[in-house]
Amino acid sequence: MNSRARLTAVGLALTSLVACGGATPHAPKDQEAADAAAAADPNSNEKTVFDDLVQTQDRARAVEGVVMDGKAKTDAAIEAAQGDGSGDQ
């Protein structure tokens, strides 16, 4: 009787797996239409799980220019304060 219970359990598990699988979520016509729409509008972005990371990197790149400008001004001020350095030696 134990083998009958195992066989029944395996049968139910396989049946549930087969029932969960189905046709593809998008028919080929739908995929072609989506590809055509994406090609027509290259600026349209699909939301992905990486959007937060990408947005963070974009903000960092935007701030990088401001920081580098500040560094250049600071370097110029240091050079001006030090002079040419030939009179010190």
Can you tag this structure with a few keywords?
mainly alpha, 89 residues
Write the layout of secondary structure elements.
Blueprint: H1 2-20, H2 28-40, H3 51-82
Radius of gyration: 32 Å
Instruction: Identify low-pLDDT runs.
Output: none
Order of helices and strands: HHH
Given helix and strand content, the structural type is: mainly alpha
Give the averaged pLDDT, no decimals. Answer: 77
Shape: elongated
Number of helices: 3
Strand share of the residues?
under 5%
| Major sheet details | none
Q: What is the helical fraction, as a range of percent?
A: over 70%
End-to-end separation in angstroms reads: 101 Å
Overall number of strands = 0
